[in-house]
């Protein structure tokens, strides 16, 4: 396994990214970004905005540009450090697409067609059933393997894609000699906010593409809107506060949010709100969310006010990522049999 250190012990490599296909929501923060910040202390981190993945579904160009820049600002406002780690936009590193083509040429078609997410998206996007939907997981594999990532934070819905990345790494290593690290998944527990559910359909995962805006808590929602969405959030029959994800998904989802922003455990919440009903509980949760998000929102606004600084950070991140990615791609191309450039 290659090392990229100079005089220091090699730290495990983490790679992850979010699609800028819409505004970032609280589920993105709890399930991914907050954990990324914690991982910075003892990992070598590569955090992307995966705009190449985003265009497998039709995007309005102006919206994609705005969402990408806004998402970058939110990454930084949440505490991701672009000086110590690598923050970049996927399309700014062309080595991702180049490696994806090579991996496509060893990826079994049948395995790609069996991908659960491909089958689901094919049904949802029948009018735009494009090859990118099929090849999406191969590009994801290229993202991961370019940096010899040891761990990849993924949700349950991405585990199958990570298995494909491991399969392709193993197949390439077998065909051409040891080259790629086989990445391991890192899946945070649901109790830590790994899977935040819709405020209106608490049995379904919160999604920034939800057609009902009341179901989604966006990171940049104004305070009044945050409180209104919490007041309108679906709960369950009865009015007692108790954590039971299977039997009482609505209130359990709200309790997960409460714990995430205050640190108060479920037993304490149950005891404190005993006999008070949902009204008092929702009111306090709304206030807690506003207080928690306020510094992130303020810092995001400051960053977006200096577009030149954000663009400079993106250039710096792309240069750092390309240095690492180019070394790996050169090795891969040499082993495949391509002549050097």
Structure, described:
The protein has helices at 26-39, 51-54, 61-78, 95-104, 109-113, 116-124, 131-145, 159-176, 223-232, 249-262, 266-272, 277-304, 307-336, and strands at 13-18, 44-49, 86-89, 151-153, 184-186. It is mainly alpha-helical. The chain folds into two domains: 13-188 and 306-336, Rossmann fold; 213-301, Orthogonal Bundle (Tyrosyl-Transfer RNA Synthetase). The strands form two sheets. A three-stranded parallel beta sheet has the order 1-2-3. Strands 4-5 form a two-stranded parallel ribbon. It is globular.
CATH level-1 class of the largest domain = Alpha Beta
Strand order of the largest sheet: 1-2-3
Helix-and-strand structural type: mainly alpha
Strand fraction band?
5-15%
CATH topology of the largest domain: Rossmann fold
* H-E string: EHEHHEHHHHEHEHHHHH
Low-confidence stretches: 1-7
Helix tally? 13
- Main β-sheet, in a few words? 3 strands, parallel
Spatial separation of the terminal alpha carbons:
25 Å
Determine the fraction of residues in helical runs and give it as a percent range. Answer: 40-55%
Number of DSSP strand runs: 5
Q: What is the 3D shape?
A: globular
Identify the CATH homologous superfamily of the largest domain.
HUPs
Number of domains: 2
């Amino acid at each position: 396994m290659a090392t990229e250190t100079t005089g220091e012990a090699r730290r495990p490599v983490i790679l992850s990214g979010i699609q800028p296909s819409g505004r970032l929501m609280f589920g993105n923060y709890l399930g991914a970004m907050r954990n990324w910040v914690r991982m910075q202390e003892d990992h070598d981190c590569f955090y992307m905005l995966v705009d190449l993945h985003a265009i497998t579904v039709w995007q309005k160009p102006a919206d994609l540009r705005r969402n990408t820049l806004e998402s970058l600002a939110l990454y930084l406002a949440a505490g991701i450090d672009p000086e110590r780690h690598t923050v970049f936009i996927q399309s700014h590193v062309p080595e991702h697409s180049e490696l994806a083509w090579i991996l496509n040429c060893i990826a079994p078609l049948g395995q790609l067609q069996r991908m659960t997410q491909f089958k689901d998206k094919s049904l949802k996007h029948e009018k735009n059933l494009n090859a990118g939907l099929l090849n999406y997981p191969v590009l994801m594999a290229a993202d991961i393997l370019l940096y010899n990532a040891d761990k990849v934070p993924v949700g349950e819905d991405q585990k199958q894609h990570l298995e494909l990345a491991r399969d392709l790494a193993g197949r390439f290593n077998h065909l051409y000699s040891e080259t790629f690290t086989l990445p391991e998944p890192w899946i945070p527990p649901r109790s830590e906010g790994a899977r935040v559910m819709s405020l209106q359909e608490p049995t379904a995962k919160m999604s920034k593409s939800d057609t009902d805006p009341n179901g989604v808590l966006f990171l940049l929602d104004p305070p009044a809107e945050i409180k209104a969405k919490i007041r309108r959030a679906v709960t369950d029959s009865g009015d007692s506060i108790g954590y039971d994800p299977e039997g009482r998904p609505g209130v359990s989802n709200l309790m997960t949010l409460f714990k995430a922003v205050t640190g108060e455990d479920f037993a304490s919440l149950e005891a404190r709100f005993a006999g008070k009903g949902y009204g008092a509980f929702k009111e306090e949760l709304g206030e807690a969310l506003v207080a928690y998000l306020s510094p992130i929102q303020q810092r995001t606004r400051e960053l977006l006010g200096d577009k030149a600084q954000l663009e400079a950070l993106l250039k710096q991140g792309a240069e750092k990522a390309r240095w690492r990615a180019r070394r790996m791609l050169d090795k891969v191309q040499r082993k495949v049999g391509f002549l050097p450039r």
